[in-house]
Each structure stands twice: as structure tokens, then as C-alpha cells.
Amino acid sequence: MKETDNFFDKVYQVTRLIPFGRVTSYGAIGIYLGAAKSARMVGWAMNKSHNLDDVPAHRVVNRKGLLTGKHHFDGTNLMQQLLENEGIVVIDNQIQDLEKVFWSPTEEL
DNA sequence: AGTGTGACACTGG
DNA sequence: TCCAGTGCCACAC
To answer: Does the keyword field hold RNA-binding (predicted)?
Structure first.
């Protein structure tokens, strides 16, 4: 077991804590982890999260609310479907009313 | 030990 | 608002 996974583990933890019908950005998670500049790492962690089914990566999007990782999901619009299923309006991989569904771990967690 | 890479974020034009 | 370029950190090879 590697303790170095702490970073990734945290990412998974926060991602799992995302409330239903809410989304967050990689940067927000990075800030919460203390690595705001490593927002890219968060995405990498998500890549590994594919191994885990407890990580709702579909609730994690970039700062623009764009489903950048959708392509990485199932290769289809599964990510968007999941978000819409939670009441989030997604058009063309772009989350609508992002301000309303946005969830900040640093503020609400 | 070094290089390449990435599901980003920020700034400037 | 959008496009392009830059910085940034941590992981994989």
C-alpha cells in the first residue's frame, strides 16, 4: 500500500462527497487538497478512479462546466446522461446553470 | 534520475 | 465571449 495515494485518495473522497445534483471543478478539488495548481492531477486521479465505481467522476467537470472527461468515460454520452439524470441540464457537453449546481468543497465541506 | 504527459486554470489579445 | 499560449504539479515509463 502506498501512502502516496493520499492525494488520489483525497480526490476520490471529495468526489464521493459531491451531493446529488451538484458538480464541482477539478480546480476546486485541487484547492481543497491544497494543490490548486495541480488541477490537472485531479483529472489524472479520475483516470485511475475508473477502477473504482464509488467515484462519480461524471460530477466533476472543468471550470467552464464542460464535460471534458466525457470522452474518457464510456466513450459515449454516458456522462451527460448521468448528469441529466440528476437534474443537471447539459447541452453539448456544457453544463447549464453551472453556478446553481456548482459545489465548492472548500465552502460546503 | 530524467522526460513526457494530462479529464486544468489563468492571462493576454 | 472565445482562442491561443503559458504555468503548474504529480504520476507513469
So the answer is: no
pTM for the whole thing? 0.91
* For range A24-45, the mean pLDDT: 89
Q: Is the pLDDT of residue A1 over 60?
A: no
Nucleic acid strand C within 7 Å of A102 CB = no
- Residue A93, CB, less than 7 Å from strand B? no
Instruction: Give per-residue pLDDT as tens, A60-93.
Output: 999 999 999 888 888 778 899 999 999 999 988 8
- Structural domains of chain A ordered from first start: 3-101 (1.10.10.10)
Q: Is the CB of A15 under 7 A from strand B?
A: no
Q: DSSP H helical segments within A6-75, as ranges?
A: 6-17, 26-33, 39-49, 70-73
Protein-contacted bases of chain C (C-beta within 7 A): 7-12
| Distance from CA(A55) to C1'(B13), angstroms, rounded | 39
